[in-house]
Amino acid sequence: MTDKQTGKRRDVAQEITDRIIAAIEAGAPPWKRPWKSAFGSLRPLRNNGAPYKGVNILILWDRAGEKGFENPRWMTFRQAMALGGHVKKGERGVSVVYYGSTTKEVEDGGGGEGSEAERTFRFLKSYPVFNVEQVADLPAHFYDHKGKDVVRTPPPSQRKAFFDGVGAEIRHGGDCAFYHRGEDFIRMPPYGAFDNPERYFATLAHEVTHWTGAPGRLDRKKGRRYGDEDYAYEELVAEIGSAMIGAEIGLPPDHIEDHAAYVNAWLTSLRNDKRYILKAAAEAQKACDFVMAKTQSGAPGGETRGEPAQAGVAGAAA
Q1: 181 class by beta-carbon count within 10 Å (0-12 exposed, 13-18 middle, 19+ buried)
Q2: Alpha helices, DSSP H, located in 168-255
Q3: Number of Cβ within a 10 Å radius of residue 301
Q4: Among positive and negative, which fits the CA dihedral 313, 252, 147, 149?
Q5: Which residues are CB-contacts of 10 (< 8 A; sequence separation ≥ 6)?
Q6: What is the DSSP letter of 51?
Q7: pTM metric for this prediction
Q8: Which of 148, 223, 125 is nearest to 181 (CA)?
Q9: Which one of 160, 190, 237, 257 has the fewest CB atoms closer than 10 angstroms to its CB?
Q10: What is the pLDDT of residues 154-173, one digit of tens each?
Q11: Terminal alpha carbon distance of the chain
């Protein structure tokens, strides 16, 4: 992929990583601030209403927060034209990504002289999208999200029913929230210990994300001790995963304090591995999908999810 202005090959993974590093250093990582307004926090949606997944959620939350966009829908230049609209003069898109694959014939070292075998190679590609607020003359329904797609906060009873549907064992008591992998239960402080119901359920979403990583579920590596690399990675997955679950059901994203040990570990890993955030976002998406599948309805109040099936890592990035 080549930059049209410089003629140099673009490194999309590095560009994404650099933006995430800058956001963390500024104290505003995108999973802590899915953009909010009077109608709540929303998942970013394609022009046809299907939700984005994986790292693309973080990319679009980050851009929406930067530019103050409140409309959740995004589209390509050509999609805008096909709908009768046009991107406003001077507006710049943001690159979202997807994984693809190609099959090539390569020399087969074990098949004798001149023998060849097919190998599949995965690659990361990007394309620019624009928020609906950057596009003029679209059909009216693209602009009426404030009146039509208002996110109303469900009552605590519906919140409880949603998390009951996940099937995790939740024990209450003490003043700490954590997931105990050895005994496979979530410990939560009493409901009344939280300053508002939303913080209780948002914290629970974080611990439920940890719960998905147990053996027999998604089987993620936990880490041996607080602050080590695997422990910090799992915390990053839980941070992003809880934000994704929150965006599905309208929970606030600002319920977890970023401990310095985690932040420093994340920054070190991001600087050393340009695909670190892509992998963490993919794991978080799997966790979110696991939770939503457990609840069947996909949202409090019976709202169904209507999103297309995605396969493998490609789906996680789409």
Answers
A1: middle
A2: 197-212, 229-249
A3: 12
A4: positive
A5: 1, 2, 3, 126
A6: B
A7: 0.78
A8: 223
A9: 257
A10: 778 888 999 999 999 999 99
A11: 18
